[in-house]
Amino acid sequence: WSQRFKIIKDVAAGLCYLHQHWVQVIIHRDIKPANILLDGTMNAKLGDFGLAKLHDHGIDPQTSHVAGTLGYISPELSRTGKASTSSDVYAFGVVMLEITCGRKPILPRASQIKMILTDWVLDCWENGDIMQVLDQMIGNEYIEEQV
């Protein structure tokens, strides 16, 4: 669990830098595990900026079409076509769930409630059984507050 949690923190720090601390705001638009690279000491870095958009701080980004990967696209982006830092944060949230739960965001052959990762996790949360979503490969090696 500690390595997974470190990867989550590294990606969060990178995303924070892109959104708040660089000269311009960078909206990545394709946050997903395949675009998270690990170096030799398992430090996580965001990669693949092919869909990224830049804009000045305080200015509304001008995107008009949906870009990204199915399962990581926020409902707002699907509805409006406008990417934002919030749509990146949504995708990062899906990545965190994927790392924690040990499964893909969409399982087409799963039962209706387990098909969409975000829906399944929300259902478990609302039923007071959130620890059910934890990847069994983690075993007992985790800190519940971090999960």
Automatic annotation (TrEMBL):
<dbReference type="InterPro" id="IPR008271">
    <property type="entry name" value="Ser/Thr_kinase_AS"/>
</dbReference>
<keyword id="KW-0430">Lectin</keyword>
<dbReference type="InterPro" id="IPR011009">
    <property type="entry name" value="Kinase-like_dom_sf"/>
</dbReference>
<keyword id="KW-0067">ATP-binding</keyword>
<dbReference type="InterPro" id="IPR050528">
    <property type="entry name" value="L-type_Lectin-RKs"/>
</dbReference>
<keyword id="KW-0547">Nucleotide-binding</keyword>
<dbReference type="Pfam" id="PF00069">
    <property type="entry name" value="Pkinase"/>
</dbReference>
<keyword id="KW-0723">Serine/threonine-protein kinase</keyword>
<dbReference type="GO" id="GO:0030246">
    <property type="term" value="F:carbohydrate binding"/>
</dbReference>
<feature type="domain" description="Protein kinase">
    <location>
        <begin position="1"/>
        <end position="147"/>
    </location>
</feature>
<keyword id="KW-0418">Kinase</keyword>
<dbReference type="GO" id="GO:0004674">
    <property type="term" value="F:protein serine/threonine kinase activity"/>
</dbReference>
<keyword id="KW-0808">Transferase</keyword>
<comment type="similarity">
    <text>In the C-terminal section; belongs to the protein kinase superfamily. Ser/Thr protein kinase family.</text>
</comment>
<dbReference type="InterPro" id="IPR000719">
    <property type="entry name" value="Prot_kinase_dom"/>
</dbReference>
<dbReference type="GO" id="GO:0005524">
    <property type="term" value="F:ATP binding"/>
</dbReference>
<keyword id="KW-0675">Receptor</keyword>
<protein>
    <recommendedName>
        <fullName>non-specific serine/threonine protein kinase</fullName>
        <ecNumber>2.7.11.1</ecNumber>
    </recommendedName>
</protein>
<comment type="similarity">
    <text>In the N-terminal section; belongs to the leguminous lectin family.</text>
</comment>
